[in-house]
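can u do me a favor
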């Protein structure tokens, strides 16, 4: 029942058994919120870009979203059994091609071409795609900004490289942050400097310090803008509390996450690290060492503008769009909170069409993201979140039952009961039709 081809942003691709892009996703591929004038995603991008000198950092903001599995995973060192590769996490165009799940998909090609453009770093902003849960901070399409900075070490001693990196660091502004906690910069177990690939601890340390300085600047800028937008000039001058946490990415080592104290909670802002030397070598940059980071633009925009729900970014309602001006950060004013209406749906898993096909003996595996996508397909942006509220296994029969609560709420109007009942009925019938479950 699958068409033989799929057309994405005007380019037609062959489909196969891997294809899992719902037609409801297609309009998003051409929205380009990060390039839409006045839009908070575009404004946020520009605020962050302003902290990276254009003489050093090339900007790439129009790279198309369809990339190869090699670009998105293989070239970045993702192990072959990494969960990120699964069809339940990633949108496959076909076996060889995906909608990029992160801007890192463009690392290798940009490392290769940067020098020719006379730059030693880049910023890439783009739409990225992930199959995920439904709630106020997750959406199957969002925007990332990735940055990287390379330093030339050819013909230099380790000491000369370190001096050069630190001299560059000294030239940077001092960020208004307080580092509350920090994991060890180096030689953490399981998060090593790539000594076996030719990095000395001193070199990696200098690159890591440069990276941290640059990203602390990003955070201090974002937080002073957020405070000013809220009219709090005193808070805008205060130091923002951050902490560095040891992390893992297949393409950096050592790797870190930067977290920020926001309304009493630690909020993860970005991932980053020292680029693995084998990946640089592979991209033709044997003579360089460097850092990279990736951040989610929505998360930062939500916090700067006080936007409470990620669905709002996609709203075409003038009451949303009309609030923003190019280059201005101002608190979002909620136009109204419309009533919430929830419906529960419970089902036995592995006992629907798959079980029948297998002669009643166990069916297809249940993937929550498939369920989430089905609900999005029916309810679109009228679904605020979906939560698992009950799960049990029958002690005698071993049958497993799940119960999900679907919260329906429009951002733009009050939903009628009939409308929500209609949506819920559709969710139920599609569940029976498309998934291996038995409704209760
Ligand atoms: N691509 C990573 C992500 O999406 C972020 C990252 C980018 C981490 C660059 C390290 C270096 O989670």
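np, heres the sequence
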């Amino acid at each position: 029942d699958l068409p033989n081809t799929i057309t994405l942003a005007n380019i037609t691709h062959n489909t196969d058994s891997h294809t899992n892009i719902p037609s409801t996703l297609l309009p998003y591929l051409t929205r380009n919120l990060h390039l839409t004038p006045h839009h908070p995603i575009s404004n946020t991008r520009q605020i962050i870009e302003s902290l990276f000198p254009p003489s050093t950092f090339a900007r790439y903001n129009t790279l198309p979203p369809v990339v190869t599995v090699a670009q998105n995973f293989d070239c970045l060192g993702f192990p072959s059994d990494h969960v990120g590769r699964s069809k339940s996490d990633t949108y496959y165009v076909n076996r060889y091609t995906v909608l990029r799940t992160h801007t890192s998909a463009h690392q290798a090609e940009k490392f290769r071409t940067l020098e020719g453009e006379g730059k030693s770093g880049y910023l890439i902003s783009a739409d990225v795609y992930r199959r995920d849960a439904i709630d106020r901070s997750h959406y199957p399409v969002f925007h990332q900004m990735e940055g990287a900075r390379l330093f030339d070490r050819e013909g230099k001693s380790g000491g000369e490289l370190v001096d050069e990196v630190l001299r560059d660091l000294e030239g940077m502004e001092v960020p208004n942050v307080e580092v509350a906690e920090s994991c060890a910069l180096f030689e953490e177990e399981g998060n090593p400097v790539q000594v076996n690939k030719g990095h000395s601890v001193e070199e990696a340390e200098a690159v890591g310090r440069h990276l941290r300085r640059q990203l602390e600047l990003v955070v201090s800028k974002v937080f002073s803008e957020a405070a000013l937008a809220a009219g709090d000039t005193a808070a805008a001058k205060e130091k923002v509390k951050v902490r560095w946490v040891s992390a893992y990415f297949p393409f950096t080592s050592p790797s870190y996450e930067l977290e920020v104290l926001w309304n009493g909670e630690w909020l993860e802002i970005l991932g980053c690290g020292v680029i693995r030397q084998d990946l640089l070598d592979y991209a033709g940059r044997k003579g360089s060492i460097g850092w990279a980071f990736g951040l989610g633009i929505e998360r930062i925009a939500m916090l700067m503008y006080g936007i409470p729900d990620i669905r709002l970014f996609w709203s075409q309602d003038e009451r949303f769009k009309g609030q923003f001006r190019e280059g201005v950060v101002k608190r979002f004013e909620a136009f109204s909170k419309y009533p919430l209406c929830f419906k529960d749906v419970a089902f036995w898993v592995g006992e629907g069409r798959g079980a029948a096909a297998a002669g009643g003996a166990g069916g297809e595996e249940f993937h929550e993201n498939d369920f989430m996508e089905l609900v999005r397909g029916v309810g679109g942006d009228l679904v605020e979140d979906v939560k698992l509220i009950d799960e049990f296994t029958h002690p005698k029969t071993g049958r497993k039952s799940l119960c999900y609560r679907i919260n329906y709420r429009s951002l733009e109007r009050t939903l009628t009961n009939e409308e929500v009942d209609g949506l819920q009925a559709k969710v139920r019938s599609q569940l029976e039709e498309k998934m291996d479950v038995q409704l209760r």
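The mean pLDDT is 93. hope that helps!!
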